[in-house]
Amino acid sequence: MLKHLQPQKVWGDIFNCCADTHPTKREFYTHAAQSLGNPVPEFTNSGTKSFKIVSNQKVKQILDYTFLHPELMKIKFEKNT
Hints:
This protein has 81 residues and is an all-alpha fold. The chain is 32% helix and 0% strand. It has one domain. The relative contact order is 0.28.
């Protein structure tokens, strides 16, 4: 990421570096556990919580940046042996 900032002279600007998709923690960790063949984690139902969706459009537009994993639910996890 840093190598993209220097030529653009955007020091001092703020960029959100996050995936395009925003699954819940439950969705993401369930997907990761299943991909690894691990037991699915248990989650408590704590009711509905408010949240904000963070946008990565600025970093993609200004720096012409492409994320390695823009869609979190398409990541293929592998067990370390």
